Amino acid sequence: MAQETHSDALVFFGATGDLAYKQIFPSLLALVARDGLSVPIIGVAKAGWNLDQLKERARASIREHGQAHDEDSLQRLFQLLRYVDGDYRDPGTFNAVKKELGQAQRPLHYLAIPPSLFGTVVEGLSKAECLSQARVVVEKPFGRDLASARALNETLHRFLPESSIFRIDHFLGKEPVQNLLFFRFANVFLEPIWNRQHVRSVQVTLAESFGIKGRGAFYEEVGAVRDVLQNHLLQIVALLTMDAPFCSSAEALRDEKARVFKAMRSLSPDSVVRGQFRGYRQVPGVAPDSRVETFAAVRLFIDSWRWADVPFYIRAGKCLPTDATEVFVELNHPPRPIFEAPTQASPNFVRFRLGPDVRISIGARAKKPGTSMEGEDVDLVASQHSAAAMKPYERLLGDAMRGDISLFARQESVEEAWRVVDPILHDGQVHEYEPGTWGPREADVLAPQGAWRTVLADSGGVQVVRDARDEAHRSDEALPEGAQRLKPAAR
């Protein structure tokens, strides 16, 4: 259940960093403009800056990354801003924070800093008596493996109860992900078929057409498994497969997600294929003999009554043909063909497109016009709209200020997710793939009949779908920059 008290101040550490510039300042402005946020906002960093410089940084951030706004809202944000410049290892920094908090009793401390500094900052806040009724938001990654995640949680719990720790995963704040959860439990027609009796397989894809974007040193530390699979994609699987919570409370929702994580079978080395796009090792900050994966595909099982023996095929990668996040739930074939041979009929499916736009559709077979009983594939579109809505950090920071923990990860779920991927974190074989393809050919053996399914484009409301067996690894013909080769729809 969400706490009833609203935070009466917001302190964000890492105020001069990249995350603050790209995400936090635009979200703070939106909270001021739309939610009427009116509490002190205290930025903390070690940059040798003053308040005026922080305001200029905020203005530049909002100009580049924010949405349309009025000058009055920006000036109201500036009136709320405070700044403390200091080293996180200096007790004087936290005494200055205490002074800026003034009469505030229930601050929200947002740690937009590396996890290695979490313990230092939380301990400093505790010694300065800034934690007694506080909430603390921590950014991912929540550890690098199961052991480090447990150590990080132990550090945080030395100073804070679990109910005051908000582990933020911006992916859960996205509108399309919220729509997945709502669609499942606001409608009853899915429930009778949402189980192993009717679902043949599930595929989840997170494709990015770009590379590392100058973050070579960072990516060398994480790789695709740590960056998106352990958190974003397993969270999507949990939302897709969890049972309905008994009520709408935050803890009831998190209880059901935790049950799914506990039922996930740990991955084995033979259930993963790792890839690295050609040219990755030439990116600044990347080792010339790097074995870090920029692509990962896994086959996952959930050992629950509802999902036993249903394979979940999950893949994510950089430099793939498009930008898309999608869930494809393939249903079983009819038990006996009546009008078509089994090889002609495509299976029914439910598709959740989670980005960049939002689209929910159901795949069915309908009769072609004419005298023969021949079928064709049709998409019954249940929902289609732009994902341009509330930005994730605006939603999540607003929820944290209100004490709503629904969209934040709980300790046991974080540790269970690490338990799932722990066996595949160590160096394994990495297969090279060409940029602009769907990863290494070796990944095809994981999916049923080598058939990965994904959406390449939305054009005029018509989705173009390509089976991985149809030109999935084209590299023989060059295309103009930005061009995509499309195939007729295939399921």
Shape-level CATH architecture of the largest domain: 2-Layer Sandwich
CATH superfamily of the largest domain: Dihydrodipicolinate Reductase, domain 2
SS-derived structural category: alpha/beta
N to C succession of SSEs: EHEHHEHEHEHEHEHHEEEEEEEHHEEE
- Strand proportion, as a percent range, falls in 15-25%
Q: What is the arithmetic mean of pLDDT?
A: 87
Kindly describe this structure.
The protein has 491 residues and is an alpha/beta fold. It folds into 2 domains: 131 residues, Rossmann fold (3-Layer(aba) Sandwich); 261 residues, Dihydrodipicolinate Reductase, domain 2 (2-Layer Sandwich), CATH 3.30.360.10. The protein contains 11 helices and 17 strands. A 9-stranded mixed beta sheet has the order 14-13-12-11-7-10-9-8-15, covered by helices on one side. A 6-stranded parallel beta sheet has the order 3-2-1-4-5-6, sandwiched between helices. β13 and β14 form a beta hairpin. The chain is globular and about 80 Å long. The C terminus is likely disordered.
